[in-house]
Amino acid sequence: MRKIRVGVVGLGNLGRSCIDIVKERSDLFELIAVFSRREVEGTVLLSTVDEYKDKIDILLVCVGSSTDAPILLPQLAKNFSTVDSFDTHAKIGEYIENIQKDQGDVVAVVGTGWDPGIMSLMRIYFDAFVIGKPAESFWGDGVSLGHSNAVREIEGVEDAIQFTIPKEDAVDAVRKGKVVKALDKHKRVCFVVAQNDKHKQIEEAIKTMPNYFAGYETEVNFTSKQHFDKEFKGRVEHGGLVLASDGKSQMEFKLKLESNPYYTASVMVAYAIAAFRLKQEGKTGVFTVADIAPKYLEIGDVISKI
């Protein structure tokens, strides 16, 4: 397989992690360009991306799921094969439909990362192998990139971070084969930097945000910029757990991540290989992780690992 020519869209934590991994794997990838909405040294303006149509095999699109990805991906998928980490579970179907409307003869792999992503795969396997009880996912303890980005996009917010904390009683209940309500599984804790006169409206906007905070037990803490930078700046740890139990059998899959963005980027890069191979076979369309066989991810001999 020749080197895969890659472009990266976005310069946040996720985008920078994708850049690092692509450079580390120079045996597999060639980094063609990094695209940004604004002029940044070493990047190319995103407005000129179509000029690279015949120079890039896969675009790794590293933008927020709440507002940016739903607008940007349908535009990019007209001319480029893409991999993204769209993470709004309730909107995946709508997101796919919007990409498909004007999609070119390309491959778009959506919702990669750790969840959606490999934890999605675990839920599918667990549901199939432990009959009668649905698999449940728990996120945390740790920093949610998507939720933190969503809070930062609220008008008046200068900076913010959101920690997702599983509720132990919910975890114990699932281990005993019980079903718990989705909104009862986690607590969400936010730390926000904002002007004092904006606190009330920002807290209301957070707690009522559909698909992110509405219905969850949510704690909003306002703090100074100095305290925020000292305690929270650069925090990117996270974790996840998938459980299934029917009282007779129990399966668990656990992730502990020192860097949420680096691991998410690792999964995106793995699916860049899959997207490239699918396109080489002449396949086009939108794919989730459930649609792609493991052999498309494997660098070596997949049979030797069975």
The SS-based structural class is alpha/beta
Rg over CA atoms, rounded to whole Å, is: 20 Å
Instruction: State the end-to-end CA separation.
Output: 22 Å
Shape: globular
- The average pLDDT value, as a whole number, equals 93
Given the structure, what is the number of helices?
A: 9
Please bin the fraction of helical residues.
25-40%
For this entry, what is the oligomeric state of its chains?
Answer: single chain
Characterize the main sheet.
Answer: 7 strands, parallel
Low-confidence stretches: none
Spatial order of the strands forming the largest sheet: 3-2-1-4-5-6-14
Element-level helix/strand string: EHEEEHEHEHEEHEHEHEHEEHE
Beta strand %: 25-35%
What does this structure look like?
With 306 residues, the chain is an alpha/beta fold. It is built from 9 helices and 14 strands. The longest helix has 21 residues, at 260-280. The mean pLDDT is 93.
